[in-house]
Amino acid sequence: MHCPFCRHTDSRVVDSRTSDDGLAIRRRRQCPECGRRFSTTETASLSVVKRSGVAEPFSRDKIVAGVRKACQGRPVTDGDLAQLAQRVEENLRATGASQLEANDIGLAILPELRQLDEVAYLRFASVYQAFENLDDFEAAITQLRAEDAERASSAE
Ligand SMILES: [Zn+2]
Question: How far is the CA of 15 from the centre of ligand 1 (A)?
Fold first, then answer.
């Protein structure tokens, strides 16, 4: 790590701490040449392998863009979408994997979207899981109802 002040090519880590969301490590460094201190932030890499086999860096923006389509006309704010994308990223990072398949991302989005808006969830699931007819929707809705009922009875 180059010193940003004198461009010395080495530096010493004097302190490391994990950011509040647990996604990055912030290091305090000191230059042995000029003695000045500076901070760096390091994020563990997370990449997504597309169907074509090409890997690209994980992007919260892409999650937001994908989910936003399913949320058209629904009472979902940009803040909701940003929070959803953050939770999806946290859940994916918590698995410890550094490389994911596009499929894993969709699977991680579904439960979060369901909590946000059931209609948007059904729309997203219909595209992602390639629903072909009304029976597929009916099965998904039946499952939602059964899980809602289960949740309601366990909350009593
Ligand atoms: Zn320096």
Answer: 17
